[in-house]
Structure prediction request, 295 residues.
Amino acid sequence: MACIEARGLRKAFGTTIALDGVNLRVEEGRILGLIGPNGAGKTTALNAILGLTPYQGELNVLGRDPWTARDQLMRDVCFIADVAVLPRWMRVSQALDYVAGVHPRFDRAKAEGFLAKTTIRRASKVRELSKGMVTQLHLALVMAIDAKLLVLDEPTLGLDILYRKQFYDSLLNDYFDRSRTIVVTTHQVEEIQHVLTDVMFINRGRIVFDCSMEELESRYLEVMVHPEQVAAARALKPMHERQMLGRSILLFDRVDRQQLAGLFADPGDLRTPSIADLFVAVIGDQVGQAQGAVR
Prediction:
C-alpha cells in the first residue's frame, strides 16, 4: 500500500516552476532518501506532502489530500525541518510538558530516554543550548511521537559526526519498525546510505532517478581501470566516467559483472557505486548538458 502517491504534481512561484509534473510512489514501511541539489524542489515537495502549500495535480498521503485534510493528517505525521523553531525562553522540561499536553501519541518516557543520551539538562532554557543541542532536543521530542510518517528535512544539520551517527542509529533501532515510513532529505548522502531502502534524485522540479537500494546494488557497477584499459572499458558504454589518482573510474548500468571481472582482473577495482557517485553521474551529466545547450 502506498503511503505517499503523487501524479502530475506541479507547483510554481510566479515564473519559477518548483515542481514540474512529479510522479512518485512511496510504499508503507520504507525509508526514502530524496536527494537533489539546492533549488531542485526538495523542500517544495515536502511542503506539499505536509499540506503546507497548495499544488496542482494529485497527491495522496496516508489516504488523505494533505491540503484539504491537513488537521487529520498531522495526527499521523511528524516533521523535522532544517531549523529547529523551539521558543528560546522555554525550558527543556516545559517543552516536554507542552508536547505531552498537545499530542496524544507522545511517549514522554521515550523522549526522556533520547535526552538521557545527551548532556542536555531539563532545567536549561533553549537559548542556553548550543545549536546542536537544540537540534537534539527537537529530535527527541519528534521521535517520541508514534507517527505513521516521519518527514526529515536535513535533520542532523548542526550536529557533529558523533551525534549524526547516533541519530541515524536511533532512527533504525529505536524508531523504525517496518510499519512506519520515513522520508529524508540531506546533503550528507554517505551517512544515510546504510539507512535507506529507496532513493530518488530530484532536479529542476522533476524526479530523474527512482530506485530501491536492492536494485541499485544489483544494477550498477563501478570499475577503476589503468590507462591502457580505458579503451576496452569505454567500449562497454559506461554511463559516466571520472578520474582519480591517474586512473579512470567508469560507472555502468546493467552490464554483466562477470564480463567486467574478466576484463579487469583485480576484484578490488570492481564495486557497487555509492549514492553520491551515482548522484554525480546522473545530476552532473544533466547540468553539463544544460550548460552545453545554453552555449
